[in-house]
Each structure stands twice: as structure tokens, then as C-alpha cells.
Design goal:
Elements (H helix, E strand, L loop, with lengths): L11 H4 L10 H10 L3 E2 L9 E3 H14 L6 E7 L6 E7 L24 H5 L2 E6 L2 E6 L4 H4 L8 H4 L1 H26 L11 H13 L3 E3 L7
Parallel strand pairs: 4-7
Antiparallel strand pairs: 1-3, 2-4, 3-4, 5-6
Amino acid sequence: MNKKFECLRCALCCKNTNFSNVNLNQEIIGEKLAKKGLYLGAKNSEIGILLFNDEFKKLRRFADENGIKFHPVPLFFVIDKLSENAFIFCWTLGHKVCPFLEKNDDHICLVEDFKPLVCKAFPIIKNVRGTKIRYLPSGKCPGVLKVENQEIDFTSFYENELEAAKTVDKKMQEIFSRFSRLKDKKLIEPVSHIKPNNAIRFLKDCIVSKKICFIEEINIS
């Protein structure tokens, strides 16, 4: 038996990018985030593969160079009262079927060399219950089902995928930690307590007028 997880190249996770079963109560989540000046830019139906800003830039460039329709959606963002810009934390792919999947039966990933961390982590997904966090293999993945009745060393078998999943969480923690430092140093002043729909409208206006900034680009002196 193969001692490491092996992708079967079935592309099921590429054809249904909401493979993590994201199901947020957006009204409740939106209200909690708004109190902190944070907003969700995507609807439940749009939330799927997470893209960090550096990944977004690479995919945007590749899509433009190769004529690929690519419409990612900002996932978390803040509205800065000081600059009147929207600061984007990260993105979600915004496509149910990944636009970087070769349109033939070979299931070739066009961005294999620089695919998002979340894709590298799959089939490992995070399960949060209360204060406990567990990393589990997705039962939707045929590669997981293929070995479900076999004895495997979980940590070793999914070593690469677990490393990618933990790196995703680490990067998210760094982003939100940076946000806190920027607020503490008064380098940004998040607009809070506005209706999420109004925040999204402001975000769209900022995108059109190119008044968006990536959170990592704000200098912390």
C-alpha cells in the first residue's frame, strides 16, 4: 500500500469547489464581524476555495495572460475611515467549477506549480467543535474512501496535506494579528456597525475605482 496519500485526479474537488461544506449563518456572523469593523464580501453560495492575497495576484496574472475568466470575491475586508479604502484580507475563488481546470477529460490543473494552499491541503479539512480543532480527511474524496478500511498512520499518510492545512491556519492567524496591530497603532480606523450590504456596496465601488489595498501592504513602522 502507498504510505502517502495519492490524488486520483478525479477532479471532484475542482468541479465543486465548496468541498469543505461551508455553511455560515451570514446574518449572525455578519453582525458579529461588523462590530469589529470586519465584513464578509462573499455570499454562502460563493464561498469555496480560500485564496490569500499573494495567491490571488499569481492567479490573476496567469488568468489575464491566458484569457481565462477569473472572478474571485473578497472574503474578509475592512473599510478604512482614514484612507476611505477597502483593505482586503483574503479572497474566495468565486467559481463552483475551478476556472484553472483544463477543459478536457484529463483533469489537468493549469496552476499545479503554484496552486493555492487550500488545494494542497485537500482532502484534509478542519473540523472545529467548541474549542477543539481537528484535521480530518474529507469523506467526499475518492482517494480517502479508497483507503478507509486500511490501517494507515494518519499523520504520516497525510503528512503533506496536514502541513498545508496548518500553514493555511497560520497565515490566517498572521493576517488577523496584523489587523490588530494596525488598529492598535492607529494606522487604520475600521468603519464598524454599518449594514453588511452597505459595506459590500462600498467594497464594489472601491474595486471599480481601484481603491483597494491588501492588508499585508500596509506598512507597520
